[in-house]
Structures are given as C-alpha cells and as structure tokens.
Amino acid sequence: MSPTHESNPLRDPHDRRLTRIAGPSALVLFGVTGDLARKKLLPAIYDLMNRGLLPPSFALVGFGRREWSDEDFVAQVRDAVENHSRTPFREDVWNQLTSGIRFVQGAFDDPEAFGRLRAVLDQLDEDRGTKGNHAFYLSIPPNAFEQVCQQLADNDLATHEQTSGWRRVVIEKPFGHDLDSARELNAIVERVFPADSVFRIDHYLGKETVQNILALRFANQMFEPLWNANYVDHVQITMAEDIGIGSRAGYYDGVGAARDVIQNHLLQLLALTAMEEPISFGADHLRSEKEKVLAAVRLPEDLEEASALGQYAGGLQGGEEVKSFLEEQDIPQDSLTETYAAIKLDINTRRWSGVPFYLRAGKRLGRRVTEIAVVFKSSPNLLFRHRSHEDSDQNAIVIRIQPDEGVTIRLASKVPGTQRELRAVNMDFGYGSSFTESSPEAYERLILDVLLGEPPLFPRHEEVELSWKILDPFEEHWRDHGVRPETYVPGSWGPESAHRLLARDGRAWRRP
Length: 512
Known about the structure:
By secondary structure, the chain is an alpha/beta fold. The protein folds into 2 domains: 26-172, Rossmann fold; 205-503, Dihydrodipicolinate Reductase, domain 2. The chain is 33% helix and 21% strand. The protein has 14 helices and 19 strands. The chain has helices at 35-50, 70-84, 91-98, 111-127, 145-154, 179-190, 208-218, 249-252, 256-274, 283-296, 431-434, 442-452, 461-480, 496-503, and strands spanning 26-30, 59-64, 101-105, 134-138, 167-172, 198-201, 232-240, 297-298, 307-312, 315-317, 320-322, 340-347, 357-362, 369-376, 386-387, 396-402, 406-414, 421-430, 486-488. The strands form 3 sheets. Strands 7, 8, 9, 12, 13, 14, 15, 16, 17, 18 and 19 form an 11-stranded mixed beta sheet that branches. Strands 3-2-1-4-5-6 form a 6-stranded parallel beta sheet, with helices on both faces. It has a two-stranded antiparallel sheet with strand order 10-11. A hairpin with a 3-residue loop joins strand 16 and strand 17 (406-414). The longest helix has 20 residues, at 461-480. The two termini are 46 Å apart. It catalyses: D-glucose 6-phosphate + NADP(+) = 6-phospho-D-glucono-1,5-lactone + NADPH + H(+). NADP(+) binds at residues 65, 173.
C-alpha cells in the first residue's frame, strides 16, 4: 500500500510532489519504439526508480510489433536510459528495474497478442505482487486508440471487478483535431475506462514552474491583490522554438502550431494564470476553476485582425543554412500549414474584463523559450518624465517555463547620476540557483501521479472540449477565408502580421 498523503502540491516546499512512493503496480507501454518512449518515458521510469519512488515490485511491460525477447527489450531500455536519463546510472537500481521488465510481441489488431499480454500481467501479479494494479500508457497515434482500448476490454484488462487492483489508461495529446473529434475520442476511451481512470498527459503541466504559478499567485500577498484588470494591462503567453519540424512532417503537416501548441499547452497556461483561487488543490476544485476560465473566454469580433499565421522561410540561422518549411522532407509544396500562430483572446470575468491575452507559438524563432508575461499598466510618472526606454514604466512579472525555469520581475529604476532618468531593470529568481535539489523532469512527475492515482495535473475531457471551442472558430476562419501563412525569416520573432496584431492595440511583443 502507498502511504497516506494529501493531494496538495504545495504542502511542503521541500516536497516537490516526489516524496511519495507508488504502490505495487505494472506499467504497460504501447509505442515503445517511438521517440517519446526512448527519450522521455523510459528515462523517466528509471529516474523514478533511482530516486526510490517506485516499489521493488514495479513492473514495466513493453508491447510492440518487433520480434524482441525480454532481453532484447531490456537492451533497448538500457540504451534509452544511458543516453537520456536525468540521474546517474547505478547498476543496483538497473538490476532492480530489469527484474520486472517484460516484452509482448504483437500488433494492435491481434487478439492473441493481447491474450499474451493478459497472461504476462497475471504472471507479474503472482510473481512480483503487482496486485492487479495496471496502467496502460498509449504512446500511439489517436487513430489506434479505439482498437487498443477494445482489445483491452475484450481481454478483461480494462476492468478490475474480479480483483482488488485498479486499471488506468494514459493518453498523449493530441486529444482530437477539433471539437467533434475530441468528443468522439473521449467517447471511445470512456466506453472502456471510467472517467476517473483516464489520464490525459499534457507534459507542460508537469513542469515545476507551471505548478509554481499557483504558489506565486496564492502564497504571496504582494502579487494576488494586483492580479486583475485594475492593474494589469495585458498578458503575453509565448512558446518559441529555435528549431524546425525535424522528422515530424508526417504529424505536423495539416496540424500546425495552433493545434499542436495553442489548443493544449498555451490555453492550459492561460487557465492557470487567470483562474480564481480554488477551494483546495484537489483535482475537482482545480479543474473547476480552470474550466470556469476557459468557459469565460470570449473571441474578438474580427478574427482576421485578432490572429496571425506564419511559415518559416529558408536562410541563415545561427550561422547555419536552414531549409524553409516547404523544403522540409515530405512537406507538399502547396502546404498551408502554419509554423507560427498568434491569437488574441478576452476573458469575460470581473477580474479580467478589458485585459487582452495574447498567445503565440512558433518554430525557427529567435530562441527557445516558454514564458508567461503579466504586463502592468503604466504609472503616471509625474516625477520622472524622462525615460531611456518607452516601455520602462510598465512593470512586468515574467514566469519562465523553459529553458531557465524561474521568475523575473521587471521594474523601473533611476539611472545613477543627477538626471531623473529611468531604466527598466530585472529582479531574477531561478530554480537552478535558488534550490540545491534539481527539478524533476515533467514525465517523472506525471508517471508517478498516474501510479498514485492523483489527477490534479491531468485535464479532463471538459477542459479539452472547452479549448477546442476556443480554437475551432479561428481554424474555421482561416480555412474558409483561405488565409495563407506569411513567411518569416528564420531566427526572427515571426511574421510582420504578428507584430501588427499587437501594434493595433498600441502594444508590442516582449523580446524574451
């Protein structure tokens, strides 16, 4: 049995939500040969074991088409761990983990393979004491969810009426490609698994700084009184990447930056930034407040002026010649898929009425950064009329999600000398320099929460559907009006249309 614990992620500043040990359990991983499994999931499982957060009885079962033996799979796991784990490699930990590793060969449409999976799990329950506690991680394309879920149901793997154990399913984004498909996907999964056994992974919600938004807002009296339309001018939420699509053409073309990033990651960040204080940090209370924010989002009347689309061109970036999006392998020459998207949203609540939220995401931009910038209204500055920068009188709180996790507060300071001149300066807090312990990787936290059965960090289908209700009108407008993405220079900060989006409101994007 796992120890008794509360669901409060802020219960102890030294807790980091990783001081609790998962109970006896087996994790079945579909899609073991993919990049996500190799670079993130398998290393995270090892790191959890290395930190003593998985029980000695933990078992990992891989399911795939490869004709691997258990030993072959162990070798693949070891390669992933040695190349991508966060914590040092230790033979004793590795030996403990490998004693519970199994592999089941088969295809998603092969009932006999799922029969073999059932037999392997039954044997693990008996030999290792996993007690019927089975989590199924679907690191596979959404179009395979229905087949896999049905196979699990047909082989009595999705229910636990005959045992005292639990069954849980983990699904990766994308959760559909629009509202209708999201509803259909949810119906498929919840026909087999109860709603409270479905864990939708958004890895951004596992990042330390994302969770620290709640601490920043609700545990610091100096911020919460100012966190409203009386003082805040606007909010910018940015996810910028300095790379292209790489080998993701098969997934990315036809999806684009808005569906890939804004619908999930950035709208979740918006909800955490704008939500009211929950009654508790329990899953239902957190989700309720986030859902209220998403339901209160209002779209501007003119979607053309409230959005911008871009597509990166070829050229020099960082001294290297890079391809344009249309030159990437397997991308059609007439593709209208955007690699940059920006939208403007309003939130129709008393706290945020009149405060625009600007969301942007793109590839081949100036640098890799994800941040939330809460920009405050200008002060009258009756005493200090001379400024070295036009924006120096606008304070800002910038929450950095990646790569340098932390918080920056921008404020105005007098320049040394006799002149009454102001200049913007930063007060900076970084996790790396402020804490001796390192932040856990997002997937460590999320996998552990799945095994513990703690759902606060996982969006329910109501949040997913509300997010699609926000983005679908933009997607329909772009499609129906034949909006073509504007090309932008690699290493820049997006197309000119994105800068005009804010300039029309007398504002400008921050330079991260």
